[in-house]
Amino acid sequence: MLNTSKSFASEIIQKYEPIEEVKEARQMSVEGFIRYLCSSDCQLFENEYEKVYQDMTHPLNDYFISSSHNTYLISDQLVGPSDIWGYVSALVKGCRCLEIDCWDGSQNEPVVYHGYTLTSKLLFKTVIQAIHKYAFIASDYPLVLSLENHCSPPQQEVMADNLQFILGDSLLSDMLDDFSDQLPSPEALKFKILVRNKKIGTLVETRERRNSDKHGQVQEYEEYEEADKEEEENKVKESETLAYLKGYPEKETESKNLARLPLFRKKRVKVALALSDLVIYTKAEKFRSFYYSKLYQQFNETNSIGESEARKLSKFSANDFILHTRKFVTRIYPRATRADSSNFNPQEFWNVGCQMVALNFQTPGLPMDLQNGKFLDNGSSGYILKPQFLRDFETEFNPYEIPQNSNPVTLTIRLISGVQLPPSSHSSSNKADTLVIIEIFGVPYDQMKQQTRVIRRNAFSPRWNETFTFVIQVPELALIRFVVENQNFLTGNEFLGQYTLPVLCMSKGYRHVPLFSKFGQSLEPASLFTYIWYVR
């Protein structure tokens, strides 16, 4: 053991030794030692990270935030059911940003469903009631309700009434600080629920209207949407760019920057003032470009960017992307063609500092393993402080380049054995041909995997006793995933279990690695027995 003392050893003996005579002699039997090795004190995940330990007084934009996409769906995006369980399940897992698609319903009751599809419908007020009940079950830190609002102004007023009446004092409806030009911290927003939606006017104007009657008051919101390619080309030829880019500077020195910007056309959206004024620190604003955001975006404005566009931006403008996420909360969501509710790999967007990488929580697989593993950190609070190089205004970090001042970790893992590994579904006896794959996810230079040899016909107590070494250039962003498989040449290897966690959350020494099913359920007592060592 590391960092131990005689008093610590005595505590271990008192806690795990089953034989009184041995315990009184301040010794430990083999049985007691095995109990200790298989206990939570010897788990791979470092105990101190199971509670909130990070500084929670930074502004919201300095944190990765656990986020869900189309939270109400529990199956596919086209014909599957909408269910309250989607929200409850996500909240229990520590999710801190939920999505609610709102549409006009019958009898002046807004409904939640995936518009223009055959998915079933939920009453908006029923969704808010469930959220209110479970909002702070897993975390005390702020919850963001991201509204995709398609409702008419009268039903938007109903939504506002529901939010205020059901959520009560937990709903944030006013600024915390009169003069701040930065977002408040998770600590300052504890037990608060924030609404993310389109907003009319400034925060000061919102405060001036506080406690006034806003019934029937509707204003138009100018939203910009990208023009199609052919239309763009015509507009460029006609030199009408500035008509679509309201407020851009007209200096000749900036003409090159303007030429690089996509063209947008104005779209007018009607917003009920009652709902608009419930939006404080999470105003939804259309993303146009990094250049536009740098000049005009306000601190309380957040962007949603589709995965395809975000992927292009991260590959070709990684440093600009990081400087953008340094200042503004940015949400990434799956492309519309993922009708089966599949997910993208969230790691590439965490690498550029995106705070809200929204996944379909109902779909198991590698992306959700990474999501669940990353947010084990900091007490599973749903908030993780971003590394300093993603918070620095002068940062030159680029995930596609090896950092000049890198402080790499050399990680050594001795994979000793398996304990009661899950049986193969293709075998009536526990005789799977087991192997273990160890994968590193992080910046592209750190992505790698190694695997053990196959142990034939033994999933009960396979022994590998193999050693693997990984050199990780950016350990602050790296996750490690242990995957147990049953080798099958005909149909492909069968998944048996996995465990994912941040590299820097691993304990050193002899550790057992718990295993979880494809759906995230514990497979206890199944585990891997390892020896972990790393140096920087």
Q: Would you write up a description of this structure?
A:
The protein is α/β, with parallel strands linked by helices and 536 residues long. The chain folds into three domains: 10-40, no CATH class; 60-226 and 263-390, TIM Barrel, CATH 3.20.20.190; 406-535, Immunoglobulin-like (Sandwich), CATH 2.60.40. It has helices at residues 6-16, 20-24, 30-37, 84-92, 124-134, 153-167, 203-208, 229-237, 241-244, 255-260, 273-276, 290-296, 307-316, 318-327, 347-350, 366-374, 377-380, and strands at residues 63-68, 97-103, 111-112, 122-123, 143-149, 193-196, 218-226, 264-272, 283-284, 301-306, 330-333, 356-359, 383-385, 409-419, 434-441, 448-451, 463-472, 479-486, 494-502, 509-516, 522-535. A hairpin with a 7-residue loop joins strand 18 and strand 19 (494-502). The longest helix has 15 residues, at 153-167. The protein is elongated.
Structural topology:
Elements: H1 6-16, H2 20-24, H3 30-37, E1 63-68, H4 84-92, E2 97-103, E3 111-112, E4 122-123, H5 124-134, E5 143-149, H6 153-167, E6 193-196, H7 203-208, E7 218-226, H8 229-237, H9 241-244, H10 255-260, E8 264-272, H11 273-276, E9 283-284, H12 290-296, E10 301-306, H13 307-316, H14 318-327, E11 330-333, H15 347-350, E12 356-359, H16 366-374, H17 377-380, E13 383-385, E14 409-419, E15 434-441, E16 448-451, E17 463-472, E18 479-486, E19 494-502, E20 509-516, E21 522-535
Parallel strand pairs: 1-12, 2-5, 5-6, 9-10, 10-11, 11-12
Antiparallel strand pairs: 1-13, 2-3, 3-4, 7-8, 14-17, 14-21, 15-16, 15-18, 18-19, 20-21
Helix pairs in contact: 1-3, 4-5, 5-6
